[in-house]
TrEMBL record, chains A, B:
Family annotation (PROSITE patterns): ATP_GRASP (PS50975)
Pfam families: ATP-grasp_5, CoA_binding_2, Succ_CoA_lig
This protein's name: Acetate--CoA ligase family protein
Annotated ranges, domain ATP-grasp: 509-545
GO molecular function ontology, one term from the record: ligase activity
Alphabetical UniProt keywords: ATP-binding, Ligase, Nucleotide-binding
Amino acid sequence: MTDLATQRTSQSAQFDGIDRVARLFAPRSIALIGATDKSWWSRAIFDNLHNHGFTGAIHLVNPKGIEVHGQQSVAAISDLPDDVDLAFVMTPTPVTLEVVQKVADHGIRSAVVLTSGFAEVGEEGAQLERALVDLARERDLTILGPNGNGFINAADGITPYGLTIPSPLISGPVGVVLQSGALASAVLGFAQARNVGISLLVSMGNESMLTMTDVMRHLVHDDNTKVIALFIESVRDPDQFLAVAREALAIGKPIVAMKVGRSETGARVAKAHTGSLVGNDRVVDAVFRQHGIVRVDSLEDLVTTAAVLAHCPLPGPRFGFVTASGGACEIIADRGEDEGIVIPPFAPETEERLREIVPPFASPHNPIDVTGYILVKREMMAQSLQAVVDDPNVDVAVVMADLPREEPADPLPALDSATRLSELAHAARKPVFVMQNTLTDITPYGRMVAEKSDYPTVLGGIEHGLTALGRATQWSAAYRGQHHATATQSEPLAVDVPPDGIWAEHVAAGFLQAHGVPVVPYRLVTDADAAVAAAEEFGYPVVVKLAADVEHKSDIGGVKLGLASPQAVRSAYDAVTAAGRAAGAQVAGAVVQPQRSGGVELLVGIVTDPVWGHVLALGMGGIWVEVLSDTTLRVLPVTRDEIRTALGELRGAALLSGARGTTAADMDALVDAVMATADLAGRLGDRLESLEINPLVVDGTRIEALDALITWRQP
Amino acid sequence: MTDLATQRTSQSAQFDGIDRVARLFAPRSIALIGATDKSWWSRAIFDNLHNHGFTGAIHLVNPKGIEVHGQQSVAAISDLPDDVDLAFVMTPTPVTLEVVQKVADHGIRSAVVLTSGFAEVGEEGAQLERALVDLARERDLTILGPNGNGFINAADGITPYGLTIPSPLISGPVGVVLQSGALASAVLGFAQARNVGISLLVSMGNESMLTMTDVMRHLVHDDNTKVIALFIESVRDPDQFLAVAREALAIGKPIVAMKVGRSETGARVAKAHTGSLVGNDRVVDAVFRQHGIVRVDSLEDLVTTAAVLAHCPLPGPRFGFVTASGGACEIIADRGEDEGIVIPPFAPETEERLREIVPPFASPHNPIDVTGYILVKREMMAQSLQAVVDDPNVDVAVVMADLPREEPADPLPALDSATRLSELAHAARKPVFVMQNTLTDITPYGRMVAEKSDYPTVLGGIEHGLTALGRATQWSAAYRGQHHATATQSEPLAVDVPPDGIWAEHVAAGFLQAHGVPVVPYRLVTDADAAVAAAEEFGYPVVVKLAADVEHKSDIGGVKLGLASPQAVRSAYDAVTAAGRAAGAQVAGAVVQPQRSGGVELLVGIVTDPVWGHVLALGMGGIWVEVLSDTTLRVLPVTRDEIRTALGELRGAALLSGARGTTAADMDALVDAVMATADLAGRLGDRLESLEINPLVVDGTRIEALDALITWRQP
């Protein structure tokens, strides 16, 4: 984590105890401060509390003490009863600080501040926000917001939320945290259309005190929540965020996140809107993957994937599909491949069984199409599903079906059929999902049927359904695989950092070698005779390089390659040192190395991301990096397994296993070399800005850094 | 087109006249043959005709002449009146041929055959189907099917369709053709949920006579149809399909297609289900792109993209977005970048104007977030949209909004607001789209509001909406760009094909050179002295290669590189010819070439796709092809512009413009060389199986084929 990130997280550090967060989300009585008939927000919050099951007391504060929303208000906060648990503040910006002061004076311990005009509008607002936070901290008040819509505790029917919540509010397993106010309503509406229930939904606002990470930590420990869904603009406290993610993965509570700011325009937009740091997007991918956070690209996928993750871990990656459409089978096959879903052949006994169920012209293969004959023999679908559920090759069964959209003249057949499917699914020893062909709403009637029959989760369309199943499969694998992962954090290592922040190459080489990173043999020499002696020892041809803290030595004639005779070495020594002096560098002499040829060039780099800290970049060297950007990233610390996986992800990975006449690499030794580099970076901590080995040449068992550059941050 | 494809298309060739297709889809009276209360299909078709506006006569034929679906039937086809235009045949498979005979005898000219049990079930069924087609052809009867659900002519309210059509059937601009029966209902249901109207929907069945291409051709000329949407399993008549696609592009009627069978499992499934050929999927991508066919990957995108394409061509690629959510802005920016949507900065005068509309803390940038203050000042949305519509930098405006889902207590405000937005959109001189945050249904109430207010097209969610807008932008560019494209087809060229189908390299080289493809200088020699003489002429170093029809000469020691002296050339000659003889080859001597170094290696290949015929593959040579599969494809014929674009698509394209110290390529000369190769393939026609130049070395202006292999198909 960077210093900047440390600063950013310090504010939320006081929220380590989760009890105060739990208290904020479970008030028994709520006071609306600034309640007025003139405010759309005030009306919405009041109605929400009344319409969605809040059984506690609702108090209104209006300076005139008049009737508001048909209920008598009090004129002052001090007039409120003593037992108010939560103040919902929607007073004008200029008086908000004073109001919050009075809230604290009255002994109220939690507040939602809806009011905007704080850090999001510029420096003046930011000052006001800091004053608000200072006050709250001093008075032990917990604030959600400002500039946020509040929360919806659907599990307990507590809904102090500033935008209208359409009925019905469906309670369920998904905890939702959003760094966007307006999209909270979009997510809520879409979840309702999908019949996906939520436990708690929180619109974070400015995160002046309570951060997204604090709410995540609360949800990790919340029994009503089986899966956490996030809409992220920026992560303000990366270390804590990742700690919570690790905890969630450890206890098997999945996190799915939509993180925006991928594109350059997006980064610009995010800056305009929140002023927050937006990390490099590929780093975000790497960080999330390493921590078992499922990333999705759309709000539809966020909700659909959360619905599937609520049933995770899945027992395995092998899916069996039952359809009544050959076209759907083909879409499933195409999209399944994209999403890494395994669609294995059915076991022979299953095919045998299916042959007896489906018409003779149907193929009893996975995915199975029972054909349009379903209209004649409706029981085929359930029978086929049962056969697929019983198949030992199948871990998860999916049946293409839909809930009825409107009440038919005779509702019983549809209800019976739904009940039979539900019973089959509940009796199955493996997960069973229902999937629609396309993403259309589950209508109110369909929802009623689903509730009555305790219907399985219905995935909205093949497109989003398979994305969700694929991501859930990946998460399940990450969950199962996590016990092998043991990233080590070694002791800090102190170094003398040069004033200009850069180490000359031979210094870097010596440093790397001293810490276990293999380096091509070299000799620092200070005259031509010593250069020749070194060359004789290594054997010809050799390379002679200027030893000086110059970044691009070859550009100034500081590197001479392929020297095959003592005379050539001698003149090379003279030439490179002269070139160094001509460039005004501090010349320490020259470095002699054996000339290598053959092997595969890798780049092993450590860079510092402003949000996530040290990131390991692995890539194929030369054109692979320069033209193809063929790199893969991992945030530190990493495990040996992760390094091995990362190397396998490179597009040029085949070159490491002997393609194109290369020698197959000694992968254990290669992983050792990368691990040593990563460990070293870990030990150097914040002082290390970047460390680039380019190339690391891999030639069978011979693995050597040929060039290295280390830059430091000034203390 | 291949011979196989020619065979496949011969059946539909008789449908060149589109009148008989138009006749089939516009019957004034329909007879249901095999009508019975016991059949779900019979009931569905009868109800569909009654419920969706068919005003013509419906006749029922049942062998017992009893009352069916509450209407008197006739016992025999011969008992039908004389004016029946269409027979809908749903009799049992064994009697279908006889029934169709009687249909023809009665003078009925069009038939839909719903009955299954034909080519889709195996050879016996295929025989029956051939007999059916022979009969129909002989009797001038046009058949849709068998094994198809019929069609829905929504424009004219004619719905002889075998699955229940839910109400309301929305008439509109999208013509839909599906090679899947069951998915037709899915598409229809989704289109209804999106309030997207269709003109004609056809479920193709087995395409025994009428093919997808025939229906496409009909739709190209159908004034009710503004866009054609296809669900494709396999294209049976590629040449005609592409001819129709070209015609559609020429007249500006977009085609959008979902083509399944991408994955290996998909290909297996498609084989199991249809027995049709499934082409290599990357070739399909290339073919579609070259012919302006928009390809999509989901049923949701198929319908949503069609809805946008109905408003195409778009005036340009620059989009202006109006939202009330910073989060939505960020999603739009991220996804817009994926889809190639341009989101330009607003003009200064627009920013100025927006500053006066939105609150001071809002940023007046594109996409604009008017902020949650919209709840206070609702007119901001329309005002901002007007400003964006007026912006000279914006070609298309998109406003994030939604239709009401349920009737509010006071319906007027929502209706007024919808009307104002509609008026603004209709008055605009550029397209205006409405986009929802997520994909949820347009409810019946919302549809009513949309109809009353003549509301703009509502895109279902940012995810699918931006995909549709991006694809529509690409189509509009293709439509505008098509006039530059003039692919030439040269005169056929006759060649003597060797018995084994492969030409020795030196023969291939001579052949290429004779037809304008630049080849590295070479000399065929038959003794060592001549080899030395050739080397002296070229200058050292040279390459000596065995001249014989051996595919991998270097594997048997038939290639000697870097020969720098007469002696080396002499022994190389002896060695390679000896190696050839040892391998049992017909040795014609050896080929001497100058040894080249430097330059960029390309692969230029022509391969034969079983469906689409000759495909040009361009790739970076060496590791680029072998490890990265860095190739791009074009079906022949191609234009020079397409070749230039294709070269630019290569991941290693930067190497052609001088990256990594390479010499920038003479692109005109390179395009010439590729064009000559493509032209040659066109002239050779079906006889050419493949032609591979690997490498074509490009070194500035020097462009030379260093190695070439041509394989032939036996006549």
